Amino acid sequence: MAETLRRREFLAHGAALFSVALVPVAAATPGEVELELAGLFGDRPILPGRVTLEIPPISENGYSVPLSVEVESPMTVEDHVTRIVLFAEENPQPNIARFELGPRAGRARVQTRIRLGGSQKVRAIAELSDGSLWSTETFSIVTLAACIIQ
């Protein structure tokens, strides 16, 4: 009898945890994204160019979307990329990845897989050793979202 009660309690707790996992998570607001950008880069201007972002135009599964970013830079001690930051503004947490680089990296290129909470714009921002900021963005259509969005 005691085993049956423990099993029922376990199932009840499991069902409660599962129902919490189904609660919708809202996308970040534009204000939250701007605060995140200001916290990372201050009031420095973010210029278009020098950054190449490759992401599939259509992704069947938002749980694992391949992505690569490359920045035009000689990667010398005097002139190199120090940081690459990725933003997916419709995700619950828009700052999805941050890569720290130095002149010994050889190339300013990173590859990874990301989660996307639906069809949206993905933005890559590169910070160079002189303090300049460069960016690009692209749109990806996701047929099966990774994050539940209201």
Give an overview of the whole structure:
The protein has helices spanning 2-21, 30-41, and strands at residues 46-48, 51-54, 58-59, 65-71, 81-88, 95-100, 109-114, 120-128, 133-142. The chain has 150 residues and is an alpha+beta fold. The chain has a single domain (27-142), classed as Immunoglobulin-like, CATH 2.60.40.2470. The strands form two sheets. Strands 1, 3, 5, 6, 8 and 9 form a six-stranded mixed β-sheet that branches. Strands 2-4-7 form a three-stranded antiparallel β-sheet, with no helix packed on it.
Per-chain topology:
Layout: H1 2-21, H2 30-41, E1 46-48, E2 51-54, E3 58-59, E4 65-71, E5 81-88, E6 95-100, E7 109-114, E8 120-128, E9 133-142
Parallel strand pairs: 1-9, 3-9
Antiparallel strand pairs: 2-4, 4-7, 5-6, 5-8, 8-9
Bin the strand percentage.
35-45%
Low-confidence stretches: 19-24
Cα-to-Cα separation, first versus last residue: 43 Å
Q: Which radius of gyration do the C-alpha atoms yield?
A: 20 Å
Number of structural units classed as domains: 1
